[in-house]
Amino acid sequence: MAVDKDTVARIAKLARIRIPEEQQEALTGELTEILNWVEQLSELDTDGVEPMTSVVAMSLPKREDAVTDGNCADKVLKNAPEGAHGFFAVPKVVE
User: Fold this and answer.
1) What CA–CA distance (Å, rounded) separates 43 from 82?
2) Model's pTM, two decimal places?
3) Helices H / strands E in the chain, number of each
4) What pLDDT, on a 0 to 100 scale, did the predictor assign at position 78?
5) Could you report the per-residue pLDDT of 28-55, keeping only the tens digit for each?
6) Residue ranges in the chain whose pLDDT is less than 70
7) Residue 77, phi then psi, degrees to nearest 5
């Protein structure tokens, strides 16, 4: 897939970065090379290959899925500028 200067300028605009005119030509070549490399990956035969999350087979430790309040409300409210009855106290914002 070939990338032209207009595409580089559009990508830069979407990414909200400023790329000077003289650098756009160099980026055109670099982006074309990257996209050609990605196209080569699609040629690989991945049938029968299971998805993996790590190169080492392992299972994650499991814990009981229980809903709790954390039992640390006092510690959390200690960080608040003001608390009342176990809740954060904030100024009224709607009249």
Assistant:
1) 61
2) 0.48
3) 3, 2
4) 86
5) 999 999 999 999 988 888 888 888 878 8
6) none
7) -70, -20
For 8, other C-beta atoms within 10 Å of its C-beta total 21
CA dist., res. 47 & res. 68, Å (int)? 44
CA–CA separation, 19 and 31 (whole Å) = 14
Predicted pLDDT at 41: 87
Taking the C-alpha atoms of residue 5 and residue 21, their distance in angstroms, rounded to an integer, is 9
What's the CA gap between 27 and 33, in Å, rounded?
A: 10
Task: State the Cα–Cα distance between residues 22 and 74, nearest whole angstrom.
Answer: 59
What span, in angstroms and rounded, lies between the C-alpha atoms of 79 and 62? 31
